[in-house]
Amino acid sequence: MTGLVEVLVGVVGRAHGIRGDAFIDVRTDEPGRRFQPGSGFRLASGGKLVLERIRWHRGRLVVSFRGYPDRTAVETLRGERLFVDVPADETPSEPEEYFDRQLIGLRALDAEGRRIGEVAEVLHLPAQDCLAVETSSGRRLVPFVSALVTRVDLAAGEVQFADVGGLLEESE
């Protein structure tokens, strides 16, 4: 049996309409997996919520929670962070995709296999995702594309980068 890890999946936004609906600032790559009627969430403040209804409105997730029947009630949840526990070994639905939690902490290796640092953060930028790698000379951002990230081995705890000058070291 594998352990569970706590994952932030969303933040409750402003109310929408008068029937207790609220926008959710989605913090998961797989909202269809995490947001289903009947799903339960733990709040950062210590409470619990159960999802009642879900829909999309102009590309944004709109939900209602059991026990929050109107706009006034759901406004009290604004800013609450929603957490769920998921199996530590759970993988994304699509092959060749990774959850941020799987990448953070991986040893970063250069093209020859020498350790050069560690993945500190995954940044989801408008153009593409980037790995923030802590090296001895500081933090380096590496676009998370196959031309630069040649290998991800979760079992070994490693990510390897291509031999591209200036990618992970100071330029002269």
TrEMBL record:
Q: GO CC terms on record?
A: cytoplasm; ribosome
Q: Where is the RimM N-terminal domain?
A: 9-85
Assembly and interaction partners: Binds ribosomal protein uS19.
Q: Which PANTHER family match?
A: RIBOSOME MATURATION FACTOR RIMM
Family designation: Belongs to the RimM family.
Which HAMAP family does this chain map to? Ribosome_mat_RimM (MF_00014)
Protein name in the entry: Ribosome maturation factor RimM
Q: Which organism is it from?
A: Arachnia propionica
Q: Source organism lineage?
A: Bacteria, Bacillati, Actinomycetota, Actinomycetes, Propionibacteriales
